[in-house]
Design goal:
Distance between the termini: 49 Å
Radius of gyration: 17 Å
Order of helices and strands: HHHHHHHHH
Structural class: mainly alpha
């Protein structure tokens, strides 16, 4: 089923209203949809590199709005909607333990999920469920999703189709390593 959903999402990149499709995918991916908006962004930018920044902006705006929906699901409907969504992603067992520490990590949790392959929707729902300050959530979401989408857009704008494989296979790992190094640096400064 996921493969068909992936192929369907990818086919939207060729649609005359691809920007609206990107908006929709970026919006729902931030709260419950399993396919990331990068799947649409990459072919859209390769086809029309002069629109790279517009495409990244649409993805950013829609993703943050969708993140607010995820936040609302966590804050207002965790038992009926949030928990089943997180369970379907295989994150149910870690929820209780993680929620105790979540707000202490708030900024870093949202930043990490926003730029790495970790499902952003998990963090949006957890942010609402644990009562993370909404301003912290919004600012960090804008920063994280902006970094992710504009780096992808910039790489595709600069290098075109040849960089596609790197983005699809290794950029998530690069983001994860960068966040790990950043956290290690802060840890070293604080405790050493």
């Amino acid at each position: 089923m996921i493969k068909r959903l992936y192929q369907w999402t990818l086919s939207l990149a060729e649609h005359p209203h691809a920007l609206w499709a990107l908006f929709l995918v970026a919006f729902v991916e931030s709260s419950f949809f399993p396919i990331p908006p990068d799947i649409l962004m990459i072919p859209m930018i390769i086809a029309r590199p002069q629109r790279a920044w517009l495409i990244a902006s649409v993805a950013l705006f829609a993703s943050v709005l969708g993140g607010l929906l995820g936040y609302a699901i966590g804050a207002l409907a965790f038992e009926t909607l949030g928990q089943p969504i997180l369970s379907s992603l295989g994150k149910a067992d870690a929820m209780a333990e993680f929620s105790e520490r979540f707000n202490d990590l708030g900024f870093w949790a949202v930043l990490t999920a926003g730029v790495t392959p970790f499902p952003y929707k998990v963090i949006t729902i957890m942010s609402g469920w644990t009562g993370m300050p909404l301003a912290t959530f919004i600012v960090t979401s804008i920063l994280a999703r902006g970094l992710r989408f504009f780096i992808v857009a910039g790489l595709l704008w600069q290098f075109g189709a040849p960089i596609r494989d790197f983005i699809e296979r290794r950029l998530g790992l690069m983001f994860t390593l960068a966040v790990a190094l950043l956290l290690a640096g802060f840890f070293a400064v604080r405790y050493l």
